[in-house]
């Protein structure tokens, strides 16, 4: 048994024993009882894994590609009648499935690709944006899903089907004086709306000062005392909104305005005894946060020292550096059997972020590309090997697809974000986007390696480059 597998067994056995003792208490809350049950089930699965022969362990840690591809392709061709409840989320279903296939390196066949392009074109509102289905109200969430789907499909027909002028007009209509965006006409104003709007504008090369204006003020008002980011001012910090808020601030060159030290602390402490991430404090582990929280960590790795000019450290910078160093060193000790300490360059190389100066002109259209190209300043801020094991052993369904946690059913949403979390883990120690992950960073056989993503948009890197070139014309 490997050292890391032994560590998993020890941690989760301890959690199982603690859960068994506490379960006898009649004063437990519903959340405590649920947490105890999850710890026991996950601990049981890890204990069974530890007792398997080496060959069986290796098989258990393989990505079941053929089963996943069959599950996803069947879903893209035809859905069961029960999916009628998601009639207003059909572009999301396209994105979750198509992106998952792309991560697995599986192309969509030509006929099915044409069908998807045609369907999403019918979802495009005449006034701009995409609805949840043909004839439905345009919505920022489904606009994000449709645009990412079409970019992932790739090719001239797919990319040219997006009416960028009308998308821009729709985004402007959703912009609010507070700096936030409404999800749809008369809809809610929240951080998710800011992210979907700014991400779409950035990847389509239509992001400008009109769209970006005051967005940072709104996001900043949503950062809580915990350090994470809530959906709206006064709400609780949440993993999905934290990723959305941080990604948005990077895209508009204002990440330095956040309290990044507290944000790092909040995110890294969301990885619990089960080895997966929870979305909020005192909530249950969920496979989808492998991306939302793991992805936020990946973004933070590229931000050190957060846009401050070279040699311009202060107490705030020292606090941030301390948080980064502690998180990275702890993760490295658990993750890297070779103890190969990542070297950190103290010079500021994040030219697109931080306070603006006369010597640093900003082009919002280049921010996403430049962020992807720059090197990671520190190693993984979380235990990437532990997270991969949770995804592969507890979230992966042998018959195809991924789930939230043991006891839940598979679905396309969790399949998408568990796979997205896996590629984030595999690439979390790579210094540059074009660096191949080292074998020790991939749990299971190296054939588990997935396609890398652009972490700001969650689209496969090769498809991002194609879209970036196409929309630069």
Q: Could you please describe the fold and organization of this structure?
A:
The termini are far apart. The longest helix is centred in the N-terminal third of the chain and has 22 residues, at 30-51. The protein is built from 20 helices and four strands. It has 473 residues and is mostly helical. The strands form two sheets. A two-stranded antiparallel sheet has the order 1-2. Strands 3-4 form a two-stranded antiparallel sheet.
Question: What's this entry about, in short?
Answer:
The protein is an all-alpha fold and 473 residues long. It has 20 helices and four strands.
Unreliable spans are 305-321, 337-362
Taken as a percent bin, the fraction of beta residues is: under 5%
Mean pLDDT: 87
What is the count of DSSP helices, taking H or I runs of 4+ residues?
20
Topology:
Blueprint: H1 3-22, H2 30-51, H3 54-60, H4 65-77, H5 90-103, H6 110-123, H7 140-153, H8 156-160, H9 164-174, H10 191-203, H11 209-212, H12 215-220, H13 239-251, H14 260-268, H15 289-301, H16 315-335, H17 364-373, H18 384-395, E1 402-403, E2 410-411, H19 412-426, E3 453-454, E4 459-460, H20 461-470
Helix pairs in contact: 1-2, 4-5, 5-7, 5-19, 7-10, 10-13, 13-15, 14-15, 14-16, 15-19, 18-19
Keywords, separated by commas or semicolons:
about 475 residues; globular; mainly alpha; two-stranded antiparallel ribbon; 20 helices; two-stranded antiparallel sheet
